[in-house]
From TrEMBL:
Keywords: DNA-binding, Transcription, Transcription regulation. Residues 9-69 form the HTH tetR-type domain. InterPro entries: Homeodomain-like_sf, HTH_TetR, Tet_transcr_reg_TetR-rel_C_sf, TetR_C. Residues 32-51 bind DNA. The keyword Membrane does not apply. The keyword Transcription regulation applies. This is TetR/AcrR family transcriptional regulator.
């Protein structure tokens, strides 16, 4: 029984990994069942034998994709030696979006938020929680920097966190619709300047 369960979990993970770039590029509405069977090489029965429906696959794929981004960020933050450099990690990781080594399709948070909108409460909720988690992460770094005497004590922490997120996601959106990675570079330069301005 344990082997059957572990096999089922392996199959679920296989489906998630293989369909992750498809959902991130095409979105929930644009991804068809045939896209899923083509990406996995599995039958419809195999996919729906492991997931209730397409929405459940999409939700798990979002967690997988956003988790990959989060892992990159956390690894770099741990290596950074100052709170200023830790904050800059966000701009550095998203800068890789222009270099082709990001998750295929771009930022899963932006893609899912736009795709789900008010039509898919489950995916919208997952995107919202990811944004809140991101905001909290930035806020905690700023608080840590203030306590360590590295950052200015009068920073509006929430405003700064939300502004950073809005600039990064807005820059990604602009670069995608204009097919110009340079536009994201410009916005990320502004993020860099904002983080520089926080230093004592």
């Amino acid at each position: 029984m344990e082997n059957e369960l572990s096999k089922a979990e392996r199959t679920r993970q296989f489906i998630i990994e293989r369909t992750s770039p498809v959902f991130n590029k095409k979105g929930y509405a644009g991804t068809s069942l045939s896209d899923l069977t083509e990406a996995t090489g599995l039958t419809k029965g195999s996919i729906y034998g492991n997931f209730k429906n397409k929405e459940e696959v999409a939700a798990e794929v979002f967690e997988y994709n956003s988790g990959k981004v989060r892992k990159q960020i956390q690894e770099r933050i741990q290596r950074a030696t100052s709170y200023h450099d830790k904050l800059l990690v966000y701009a550095q990781v998203y800068h890789s979006f222009t270099r082709g080594d990001f998750i295929p399709g771009g930022c899963p948070i932006l893609n899912t938020a736009v795709d789900a909108d008010d039509t898919n409460p489950l995916l919208k909720d997952k995107a919202a929680k990811a944004v809140i988690r991101w905001k909290t992460g930035i806020e905690n770094l700023i608080k840590g920097g203030i306590e360590a005497g590295e950052l200015k004590p009068d920073i509006n922490i929430t405003e700064t966190a939300l502004s950073m997120i809005a600039m990064i996601e807005g820059g990604i959106m602009i670069s995608k619709v204009t097919d110009s990675p340079a536009n994201l570079d410009i916005v990320l330069t502004s993020v860099h300047s904002m983080v520089d301005s926080l230093k004592l």
